[in-house]
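Researcher: Batch entry, complex prediction.
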Amino acid sequence: GQQLNQSPQSMFIQEGEDVSMNCTSSSIFNTWLWYKQDPGEGPVLLIALYKAGELTSNGRLTAQFGITRKDSFLNISASIPSDVGIYFCAGQLRSGAGSYQLTFGKGTKLSVIP
Amino acid sequence: KAGVTQTPRYLIKTRGQQVTLSCSPISGHRSVSWYQQTPGQGLQFLFEYFSETQRNKGNFPGRFSGRQFSNSRSEMNVSTLELGDSALYLCASSPGDREVYGYTFGSGTRLTVV
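Model: Structure tokens for the complex:
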């Protein structure tokens, strides 16, 4: 099946630093999504990308949909303590039945040192 | 607008038992997807229901089943529980009848099998 390789697995950064994480896939996706998950909660959608080459921002977050449609990256600028959590990339593909299935990366655990 | 509600939040079961988890989607959403999250395998797609019909299914054994009711609420059932079924089970809702960029997840049900 499809696999998403997300890196790095974990990061320890100082408050105020910028962060970058990325995902690569062996398959093409129609849409790339980035989610954040806090302990004990479900993933929350941060950014959705639906066009190859698209660059989208949401506050301090910026994400890009790779030209090949097989990769995406997420940048967080000027990190703050509440950025702590696990970030997941997900590729979305439409099945023949009209269903949209998400394939997730294994996550990047972000720790911010005040 | 109420979010996705999953009940119960926590569950402890014994090997060999069966369990039923419940998910109420966002009002007006007709699609409910289920995901299993474990430290080793990450987030994996179980199945999706739309208008009371299973529209898509992941690679899980037949012990995992689900259904959806006319009010779009969904239940997931796992029979003959195994230790490896211990996981966070997440459901996600979407309108289901058009492409959406991302899904809204519930907070999950933490299942522990002893």
